[in-house]
Amino acid sequence: MSFNIEKMKIQPLINFKFYTPQQIQEKKQYCGQNVSDNTSILKTFIHYPINFSGTNTDFQNHLLALDGIHCPCCGEETLSAQKASEIIKAAAKAKTIQQYSKVFNDNSEYFHSKFHPFIRSLNRLNENCPEKSISDAIKILRNGSSKLILNTMHDQANYLKKLDESPEFSKSDKEKIKLFADYLSARDRLPKKDEYNEILGKTLCQLESDKRKDILIKVNNRIISAYNCRGALSYNPELNKDLPERAYIVKTMLSYSQSNLAKLYNNKPDNLRFNNIILCKECHNRYKTFNYIINSPQAEENINHYVEDIANAINNNRLGTEHNKYLYDFISAVNSFNAPNLNIKRNVVSGIVQSKIFSERKRDYMFEQYSGVPCASCGTITINHDEKMALYNEIKNCENTYELYNLVRLNKHHIVPKYKKIFARFEKLLNENPNITEDEIMKQLQIDCKKDINKYMNNICTKIEHVVESGDYSFVEKAVINDFIYSVKENFINVPYNKEFRYDDFSKLTDSTLGKLHHPDKVKLVSIAKDKLKEIYMQDYIVHPPDAIVNTTGSKVKAIFQNIFKMSIITADHMNALDLGGANEYYNKIGLCKDCNHEKGRSTMKYWAQKHPEINRNLPKHLKYISEIIKREKIKEMYNYPEQAAKQAIHLGKGKIHIQTDYGLKD
Predict the structure, then answer these.
(1) Closest CA to 83 of 300, 254, 327
(2) Where in the chain are the domains?
(3) CA 374/CA 378 separation, integer angstroms
(4) CATH class of 370-382+568-653
(5) What is the pLDDT of residues 36-66, one digit of tens each?
(6) 537: number of Cβ within 10 Å
(7) Can you give the pTM of this predicted structure?
(8) Which of 603, 508, 468, 485 is closest to 516 using CA atoms?
(9) Contact, 84 vs 254, CB < 8 A?
């Protein structure tokens, strides 16, 4: 049944589509309040070894062994050293021009596009002069390579002459464009490299137009490519006795496409899995930083192509199952650059690949596949991956908002505390107006969130003003604080209900004003400004669902609750973060809902427990639940885990965590 977002009306209260008593009972069992009721789930447990992670060298070897990965910089396909060796051997065995041409045609995807004119010329020779030897064919093509360069120069001269006619260039730029175009069109012989570079530097390199870089790259790259094609045909038998000419030429051409490892972040080590990326050799030699890639016009297209290739490798089991998570790590690392023209979405990855990635991620915390595990921090009954996908499907199949309401109501024990307010408001709207439309629901939810934000913003301004009045501040310090308050009232209060709250802008404002103070109260003021801000921001974010999720679910309200339940999935948290020196061992891991995990981030357990003292109540419940799983499944090597994890939490809490350590498990 189609779901009309614009015209959808809520059915009258009497027409509620309630679930049967049996369905409600099944849902209650699904809640997982009693682990003994989850025998069907426990029987599906897959036991993974504790030490699951491969070495980084092993991962890099897997990455370099992949063939057909498009370079995220230039978009050319890369190939492994092994594949290159196979093609070179095939070229060495070729006896006729037909066999030699077949080597290129069968592997054309691995030859850089700059060599495609050579391949086309070789095919023409094969068709027109099949009696020619390979050596004779290479001589003919070598003689023709100089003509190819001159033709390329003349083509680029014609391109520049068309630009010279454009009114968007200044008189000075037109003179430089014309000068270089005349230089190229006048060539009847190959110019010396130094001469060419000198003229280029005085003309196109000196353009004032914003299009200077694009013009320079387009013109120069094509000419350089033609030169490279000619250079690949060079052969000195005295220096290359190990390879015949026909194989050496193939080796030279393939070297441009061969896989090379590069780093995303130059200031981070490559032993971090996400920090590795494959580039073709040409791009690897030319560009030393990933910033070039993300700032290029083709960045999003090329990087998305790279993501698709890695996903295909995972789907075909070519990356190694212990390294599947690299794809998500890489996407997150790329998006963290905050490039305006770049946003790589995880949802472009197929469901099959996502499942394989999740299978690896489960090993981070083997209890991620169990139903009903309470979050160690907020106590919410979490859901596992399979339950999340089933819930998504149920949400998508709801035929009206009342049916959606029933579904959410039966699963509200999975809603983390900060989003229960949204459900309560949703429920109230339905009860007050049975004929309310979806647009009216969305508008009111967004208005209510903006009211919360306005109230919060006014409160922090009042609190900060009170702190300043009772403290000793210089004129300059008061001016900075007043700037903060003025900006808050001007830009973050009374924001239109249909606009998202700009959390990043507010955070930057706080850091650039209050965060720059040298007063002893600086930390206190920043804390007042940001305390619980993320919670309010996330509520506002949830009621402004992205278009991609709306299109997938078929409804804005459906998208809201899909995103809410997404935050309830169980995830592994390192109590002491890895980049803070924490160990990747089970004693350092607990299960948190995705929402708590995101908020906690790199926070220390001491800070987290101080901010969320409820962990003292919920962590023991979490470990007790895990203990029941361990006993039922007889996972003997994990018998010490609950006690070790409890002791680790107490140690890291530094006086803020007081929980039991005995959970009834004995070796």
Answers:
(1) 254
(2) 1-19+400-567, 56-71+258-362, 81-255, 370-382+568-653
(3) 8
(4) mainly alpha
(5) 343 333 222 222 222 223 356 788 999 999 9
(6) 20
(7) 0.55
(8) 508
(9) yes
